[in-house]
Amino acid sequence: MQVFYKKKFMKVSGFSYVRNAFTYAYPFLEAIQSILPVCDELIMVVGNSNDGTREAIAGLNDPKIKIVDTIWDEHSRKGGHIFSQQSNIGLDHCTGDWCFHIQADEVIHEKDLSQIRKAMETNLADAAVEGFLFQFLNFFGDYNHIAPSRRYHNKEIRIVRNDKNIRSYRDSQGFRRFIDPSNYLNEKGTKLNVKQLAATVYHYSYVKHPADQVKKTVEFGKRWHKDDAILQSYAEKNKSGYDYAGQIDILHTFKGTHPSVMDSKIKSIDWEFKYDPFKTNMTLKEKILYFIQKHTGKQLFAYKNYKLIRH
Fold this sequence. Notes:
8 helices; single chain; three-stranded antiparallel β-sheet
């Protein structure tokens, strides 16, 4: 039986987490500002930083922003679990009906804000809708190229209902429902029932100066690998910067517009990325699957961390 909530007013909580964002060249201020217009509060979980990250967030001087200070556990070196932990801290401080998650390298275009807010309002009373799915544009190398690759998630949940049993999943990839939310790292959880939005997350994880991308890769690696020697070896081998060209399977030229909050960052780009479409590291399997995707629009066997509501 379908359950409906009875509530006259809707409150939306945005939430994110970050640490040393300037050091690793994250567009975190742009991420925050991109969702503020549709949020009634925005919870910023700020890890112990030494590069002015916290001060910059406070400097936005927006009464909607509430900073939660945390200390990252440097011994947490498995499965990227530190990211879901920080995300869940944000979730726990949300007081809204809906919780809108934005990561430090993700930005929402202003053209999508009205429909996002409307979708939350329209579905507020319908308990069957546990969240909303966003399309992703994964930029790579610079602001002019996107990766349609199956190596990156092309859809993911970014809005969830404020429910204590809904937790951030794995390395903060998405969200699932858990029987025991305190045991989310050991429990498989169940996929959420979500609606697809005609809205896009502009994902800039691989758009940094090559030197900054190496630093970010090493720091990210610390949340997965316990062997510092491996990370040190990687850093030494990539002293000249991240090898974008050697990591490409296929790229497309981006012909749209970026969120307006990204204007100054795009104009200040200080590196050059050249894409040679004849150079690729695609496996035979990837080539076959991409051929099918290109001609049918379907990405076969893609990982789906959600259950899509079709109506």
